[in-house]
Amino acid sequence: MSSDARSNDASTFLVALKAIVGERYVLTDAVDTALFLTDHRGRYHGKALAVVRPASTDEVAKLVKACAEAGIAIVPQGGNTGLCGGATPLEPRPTVVLRLDRMNRIRAVSPAEETITVEAGCILADIQGAAAKEGLLFPLSLGAEGSCQIGGNISTNAGGIAVLRYGNMRQLVLGLEVVLADGTVLDGLRRLRKDNAGYDLKQLFIGAEGTLGVVTAATLKLFPAIRSRAITMMQLDSVEDALTLFARARAVFGERISSFEIIGSSYMDFVLRYVPGTVMPFAQKSPWYLLIEAGDSQLDAPLAAAMEGFLADAFEAGLISDATIASSLAQEEAIWKLRHGVTGEFKLAGKTMSHDTSVPVAEQPAFVTRVEEGVLKAYPDANVMMVGHIGDGNIHVVVLFPHERFAGSEDFEAASDAIDVIIDDVAMELGGSITAEHGVGTTYRKRLARTKNPAELVVMRQIKAMLDPENRMNPGKLFLPDTAA
Amino acid sequence: MSSDARSNDASTFLVALKAIVGERYVLTDAVDTALFLTDHRGRYHGKALAVVRPASTDEVAKLVKACAEAGIAIVPQGGNTGLCGGATPLEPRPTVVLRLDRMNRIRAVSPAEETITVEAGCILADIQGAAAKEGLLFPLSLGAEGSCQIGGNISTNAGGIAVLRYGNMRQLVLGLEVVLADGTVLDGLRRLRKDNAGYDLKQLFIGAEGTLGVVTAATLKLFPAIRSRAITMMQLDSVEDALTLFARARAVFGERISSFEIIGSSYMDFVLRYVPGTVMPFAQKSPWYLLIEAGDSQLDAPLAAAMEGFLADAFEAGLISDATIASSLAQEEAIWKLRHGVTGEFKLAGKTMSHDTSVPVAEQPAFVTRVEEGVLKAYPDANVMMVGHIGDGNIHVVVLFPHERFAGSEDFEAASDAIDVIIDDVAMELGGSITAEHGVGTTYRKRLARTKNPAELVVMRQIKAMLDPENRMNPGKLFLPDTAA
Lengths: 485, 485
Prior knowledge:
Family (chains A, B): Belongs to the FAD-binding oxidoreductase/transferase type 4 family.
Strand content of chain A: 15-25%
Largest sheet of chain A: 8 strands, antiparallel
Helix content of chain A: 25-40%
Domain FAD-binding PCMH-type (chains A, B): 44-225
Cofactor (chains A, B): FAD
Organism (chains A, B): Ancylobacter defluvii
Distance between the termini of chain A: 25 Å
Number of strands of chain A: 19
Keywords (chains A, B): FAD, Flavoprotein
Radius of gyration of chain A: 23 Å
Oligomer: homodimer
Number of domains of chain A: 5
């Protein structure tokens, strides 16, 4: 085909899209699309025929059908806050970015049912807010909650800081509306707590990163609001001690613990240096810091007293060396600030390689020791920082090098790959996962292909081929190009 | 093929099976197999070449491979306690029943991780017991727990009396080991709380009723044991009031409520008459009875006091007319006995038609009213009994007729079908499901085909064709024969 014919085809196609969503919602100018063609970390820069912004499920269905007829690929995009390049159009083929941001209606909230039905483009914080207005809680909480969208949270099976108590995104979805690759609307938007009428199709699309269809709406579980809270940070010597404290905390607080987070010494140093407004709450340093949040739906539940007792026992047992309990909202926020998202600040500090590994909870001491040893043996000048959700077995390893450490990006990529292998091998030996909550996207494809067991990869490819036989739904994600359907 | 050749083939095949599991574990005599060829309710009577009892995943894989090579169908069977004929071989083709009962090893319990890894044939009560020995709780609980097997619980996504707090079976599975139709072992037996490395394949097999593969082992979530408890039963006038009480109870007790169960007047009468040892705890009758169980992992949590306050407020608001709080284990059991499984006793009372509908929680008043009106309009002599998990939106409707009501089984089936349509239509209009927790099996196939939305049925059939292209895994279940893959 001549390039003229191709551009004619493309312009006919764009006219069709404009007829569906209206001219102003088909963006083609670089100045309008730039933000949506680059990933959150600024690592990937893509290309698309257009960024299209539908306002309804019906429009999405029509757009997807038009793309199916024209053989155009689709990259669904929510808040574009993902960390793995899962929403950037990177394949060398005609592609449309489907931004769901205009589908931001909260369709219904039912306090009696503790459910909320939302469109895919709703911002997570807005959903939290709508629940709070009814005296209820939507528990998903993560760094990007002010801008990430629920469709993206669902498509990446988002985790965050309350997984221990409430599960990850998958556990919070009751019903799902999805547009399939051919434009069929799969209406599974049920508000049911129990439904065994056939295969649970929604599970296919949760965590599928847009490779099997476009999530357009969901019915989510709500929970009683938390009315009493105790937040504490303590200093301790080892991950083993952290696990002992975890068992003790579960015995005292049961399911009231929503967060059980660990921070390694060098990560704490990094935060104190680079994140404005952070203050060390202790007189001295220690190898590890632990943050516990416990909450109760009852007003005036005696959590602070229980926490004091818990800490006194921990001192006595020699498990911790110092501790602080927040006694005001400001103090709670100050403690959380030491733990919360610092992705942006990494760039100031140097060249970083971030990981999102999970291992079985009890294997974390081995994981931490072996990863640190392995990386330092290969790269003695690395700063191996650790921070994570120790209650979930999900420790993020961030390896930091000085800005000038690598001659060029090839050197950096080679080192990054080598460190991936070191960390992934430890994770696999311990029965872990290379990606606990971030997903695979573009960044982790090679590592997934190397570590996933072959029988599982075969079934994954079968599913992809079944629901997206032309490989047009977010192509090139999850699977390496040469292994895709 | 002559019948001699066929029987030769069959005997060669049986020799192959015996070589895998040992002669004594390939049952072919009617006296040995009868129990396993009839369903729990005695409604279905099947036929099989053999009932085979493997002892390991490796043996299951070899058996399934042998069946694949010989073109033999497989019906996996756990405790055979299902209520929908999902584990009975009913297709007119050579079939093997795969009983998992010898695979009853608890492979590992980790208190530190709050996980347990079990083989498919473990009896539910044994898993509960193994957790309790470590001071932990495995929360799945249902009438048949003394004999049902966890593989069956997983394959039917079992519900029960603690779904409100802990979710159904699906929410309790961390990892799954499955043997696929060609004998491939899909080893997803991970002990991870978070794992976003690709599609979550285990979800396909949970609730698939053995139609996509054989579940051989699972890693399950455990929870802190319940150390304080309050159980109460109250009398009330309406389902609306029950929902008001539900909202109030959630506000007072939050997630501490594990069971919120409703019993209709005629069901209560039935229980008191037919279930030995049951005693009415109130002086008078009332239209509805509500059972609430709240639990706390803390010892001496002031639940009884809170329950007394809750009941006092409910009296004052005119929501209940009488109430009793259990003050001993015996009283707790006496209250639960009024609610618990009476499947066997139905046969004494007459001809029954049981349903397992769910609707959105807030739609239950409409559901109850419209079902009762609809059934009584068509069958004025019916006794419409209701009992269920009102906190989950799952009300079991049991329609009872005198023994002599129908001239023959055809009459009974015709009435049963007509009543299904009445109830299912109400459920569909309210956004419900025809089977909340029992599954589809054989019994509910026709109703599923009639009520499930066509787009979802298409994807269900695609999944079946993808994982079981020869339709050998529990064929004839879920899908009506002429619509199966």
